Fold these 3 entries.
Entry 1:
Amino acid sequence: TLRFRLTMWITVVVLLMVVVTNLMVRAVEQRALTRNYDQFLVDSLEEVSQAVIELDPADREKLFPELESRHQVNEHQSWFVQVFDGSKQLIWSSRNAPPLPAPDISSELKGPYDGKTHRVYEKKITTFFGETCIIRCGYLHAELHDDLDLLNRNLLVVTAFISLAAPLGGYLIALRATRPIAQIIAAATQLQPTNRNERLPIR
C-alpha cells in the first residue's frame, strides 16, 4: 500500500542519515581524541624537560623523586617517562616504561610517533650546566582505543534506538500524509451515479 511504501522510504532515509552522521562524528571525534592525547604528551614532556634543564648534574638524585611524583599523577593514563644522557644511556625510567630501544633522535624533537604498543614523544635538551639529555614520554595505544571503543558503543546505542523508533515515526508521518487520500477514496466509493448532487467533502 501507499502508506507502507511511505513508511519504508522514511525509515530508510532516516537510517541512512543516522549512519552517515555517526560515521562523520566518529571520524571527527577520533581526530579530536588523538590531538588531545598528543597535546597531553607535549605538555607532560615540557614539564619534565623544564625540571631536567634546571638540574645540576651533581644533584641528579634530587630529580628522581620529582619524576616519580609526576609519573604517579599521570599513571592512570598509562603515561611513562624516561631520561637519557647525551650518550643515550638511561638515567631514570618510570616502572611502567616499555622495553623500547635507545632514542634515535637527530633533531630537537621526534614525534609523537607510534611504536608497537605505545605512542611516543622525544625531545633533546641542553641543561643550564651544558649537559645534553633526551626526554622520552609516551602512553599505551590501548588508552586511546578504550576511549574510541566507548564512543563507538555510545553511537551504536543511539543508532539502535533510532532504528527502532524510525519505523514508528515513519508510520505516523505516512498515516497523516495519506489520511486525506483515504478519506477521498472512501467518499468516492459512496457516491451514487444517479445522485448528481453528491460531492466529495472539501475542507
Entry 2:
Amino acid sequence: VGRVWSRVRAWMSLVLVAGMAACGGGGGSDSPSASVSVSRSEIRLADSYEDRQNPATEVLTVNVSGHGIAGVGLAYDPAYPVADWVGAGITGTASPYTVTIGLSGWAPVGEHTAHLLVGAVDEKGNTLDAETLTVQYKVMARLRVNEPALSFEGVNGATPPGVQSLTVGATGLNWTATPRHSWIHLSDTSGTDGTQIGVSVDD
C-alpha cells in the first residue's frame, strides 16, 4: 500500500533531508526517486494494565536512498482508522534515521493495532516511497475496589450494624468473592465489570 500512496496530507512527524537543494532534480533520469527500508516492520509495545500505561518506547532505524528527496516522515496509513493512542517521531538529518514509537495517550482495555507509514517525499510533498509499520499494544484490566477496608461497630446482642457497600471495578473481567469468616455476609459473590456489593456482619 505504501508504494501507491501518492501524497501525504498529514504527517505525524517530518524531518528535512540534509542537502535538499543539491538533491532536487528535473525530468528524465534526474526525476526524484527514493528507496525506503526499515529495520523492523512490526513493533509490539509492552503489555500494560489499564491504570498504569507506561510501556517502554521502541526504536527502529530507517534507511533512505535516492535523489530529489526533500523530507522523510511518518504518517497514519490512510487505509486504516487513525489510532490516536500511538505516538511516533522521527529524527535525523541524513540516512539512517531513527524512529521512536510509544504512547501518546491511554488506550482502553483490549488488543490494539496501529498502522503507520514511513516515507520519503519530494519538495512538492509527493511520496516517492513508503514502508508500512504495524504497532501492537495490549491493555489488561485490573481488579479493584473503592475501599481497602470496612469497619463495623456494634454491641453484642443488639441490632447488627448497617450494611456497607463496596464497588468492584473489573472492566471485562469476571470476579468472585468469598468471606474469610462465617460472620461476614456478601450480597453478591460474583459479577462482571463494575458491581456494588453489600457487606454485612452478624451481631
Entry 3:
Amino acid sequence: RRQRQMCIRDRSGSPLWSVTLFKNGVFYKTVDTITMQPLLFPVTDDGTYTLSVVTDNTGCTGTVAGSAIIAYYPPASSSMSGNAEICQGDSAAIEIFLEGTAPWSLTYQRDLANDVTVTGINVSPYVFYAKENGSYSVSQVSDVNCQGISSGTFNLIVHSLPAISITGLNSAYNVEGNPVQLNAIPAGGLFSGCLLYTSPSP
C-alpha cells in the first residue's frame, strides 16, 4: 500500500505538544513531544482519523476539530499474452486485460517504441488490431484512482505475400489448338478460372 500523510496543526499553545488520534472511533496512537507544526506522519491503513486529545507543555488540554479520511485503492493493472502469425494485409486482435476501477487509460508499444495512448476505456479486455510485425506490450496503465503496473507481451509475426508469375507462355495461341500447359513460380499452388482442368498423371 502507498503511504499517505496526515497533517495536524495546533493553532495555539506552546510546544511540546501531545496528540491522541482515533481511527474509526477506536484509539489509534498517541504522539508525544511534538516540537513543530504542522505535524505530518505517514499512514497506510484506510479509515477516518480524528483527534481526541491535545495538550501542550503546560499540561493544558485544548480543543480538537477536523478529521482525515484515508481511502485505499488497489493499483490498476494490465496483462497481455499470446502469439499470432498472419499474412501481410491481415490483422490480429490483441487483448489487454485490465483490473481496477474504470475508466482506464493506457499506452501500448510495439518493440518498445511507437507509443499509442488510449483513454476512457470502460470495458476489459481492451481489444486493438495490429498489422505490423513485432512484440506488443503496455508501458503505462492507470484507472480512475491510481497509476498501475503492466505485465506480458504479445508477439506478432507477419508473413509477406508470395510473388507469383506464370512462365512459358507464347504471345498468342490458336483458339482451336491443343490445350496450353500453365506453369507458375513458385510451384505448389492451384490455378483458378474458367476453362481450366488438371490433366491426369501419366
